[in-house]
Amino acid sequence: MVLKLNHDMRPDSTPEETARMRFVSAFRSFILNDLAADMRSAYDKRAARAYARSNGAAPRTSGEAYRAMLGDPAFEVYTACRIYAQRMVWDSVRPGVEREAERLEALEATLPELGSLTLDPDFVAPRNVSALDVHLMPGSYTGDENSSPLMPGAVYDRGLAIFSMGLMGKNLDDIGLSMSNYIKARYPEFAPRAILDLGCTIGHNTLPWKTAYPDATVHGIDASGPCLRYAHARARLQGKEVHFRQMNAEALDFPDASMDLVFSSMFLHEISLKTIGKVMEEAHRVLRPGGLMLHMELPPNSQMGPFEGFYLDWDSYYNEEPFYKTFRDQDPRELCAKAGFPPENYFQFVVPSIGIYGEDAVREAARSDSVKVNDETTGRLARGVKWFGFGAWK
Amino acid sequence: MMMQDREDLRPADAPPSLYGPDGSVRVFDDPAMDRFVGVVLNMASELWVAREQIANLRDLLARKGVATDAEIRALLDEAQTDGQRDQEAQEFVNRLLAPLREPQS
């Protein structure tokens, strides 16, 4: 499918571009569903058994499962196809963004004042952003010398629309919608007045918090100035008042005890373990007593089987996300505790995608307190996706 | 970005076989295979683009009652001597077979 974004910065694609997008979206669906199933089958029938013959026992960890799969044809085909499909995602949207650069800037100039955008001209992007093509995205989140001002954000927005195959919703906000609806249902008395989204990129999962808590002041920070500029335009296009600031999550420029909710989605796995520690300490510092730190993330390896863990670890090696496995090897409860959150205030959950399963399913998940993560839908962008979250109260 | 500039950003437990001699990620023992996978997938993509375009145009021609099948076949004879088509074919081949090239610095 070619997902049509529901705001006016969506692409005005040529027929050829539309066809390329449709192909890569269909191809990714084939890889992530069919080739993934073949790889699972190969693991059970061949790779795990061969590993057991050589090592005296079947793989017990995700790392051992990875070593068992290395050299297996199903793994190699899956991996080669997925790497190339990832490059095709960005290639399918970049020409349209280049062609439409002026239209996007002209549209931005017409938008009403709402929320704010604060960029730091002296900001130095951390190396996990500046020295990697994260997600194999050329220029990463910041773009390169040839990028127009809105290009990195537009490429990310449009690329995500292809990448997600519709599983993140028309506004790419399924994670934010699912998480915010879950928190509202599980903690109906919680009424945050100030919300901060860390590493918000284009704000796609920031906006749902403004919808869930319209009286709250919502902030989004990121290391990428171009993504934030696009995020601000995107938010205004949708009438959402959000304050975007270029800032490093390791050193928040917010006063102590000034936030009620510090949120992130798909952020922690893109930073080093050392940085995660600093980020969580900062989250603790800026939260008011009784405030909530909440992260949507990939589930931890310790709670998954070897193959399921290996399947998610893949991105660490092949998708320019080198900290992905290191993060997933941690115990999130311990990470929260090290940052000062009492261990008894930790909680984790699995929330079904609100776009796929509906609002009732999210409310039911909030009632049932489901924590089971070891299945083939949690954290996987494939049919029937569910999202993993964890958090701690200050 | 230059591979040697980001060795510190490699996954902590990456197997040595993950990287080829130039420091980039490889999948197959024979690095040529990685490049040919790209060719095959580009071809598949472009084949779909062509199919979709043809389907769109045929639908349009039929809907408007503009051209018969015989008239479309006659167009092919003209296209064989069309320099514009030759140039388009060259651009098509260059894009399709780009993964065969050495990395361009």
Description:
The complex is a heterodimer of chains A (394) and B (105). By secondary structure, chain A is of the alpha/beta class. Chain A has 15 helices and eight strands. Chain A has helices spanning 15-55, 62-69, 73-99, 101-109, 127-130, 151-163, 174-186, 207-212, 225-237, 273-286, 306-318, 324-328, 332-338, 354-357, 359-368, and strands at residues 116-118, 194-198, 217-222, 242-246, 259-265, 287-297, 346-352, 386-393. In chain A, strands 1-4-3-2-5-6-8-7 form an eight-stranded mixed β-sheet, with helices on both faces. In chain A, helix 1 runs antiparallel to helix 3 (73-99), helix 3 (73-99) packs across helix 6 and helix 6 (151-163) packs across helix 9 (225-237). The model of chain A has no long low-confidence stretch (mean pLDDT 94). By secondary structure, chain B is an all-alpha fold. Chain B has a domain at 46-79. In chain B, 56% of the residues lie in helices and 0% in strands. Chain B is built from three helices and no strands. Chain B has helices spanning 31-64, 69-79, 83-96. Chain B is elongated and about 65 Å long. The chains are: A alpha/beta (394), B mainly alpha (105). The A-B interface holds A 15-16, 18-20, 22-24, 27, 63, 66-67, 70, 76, 79-81, 83-85, 87-88, 127-128, 131-133, 316-318, 322-326 and B 1, 5-6, 8-15, 17-18, 25, 27-28, 33-34, 37-38, 41, 44-45, 48-49, 52-53, 56.
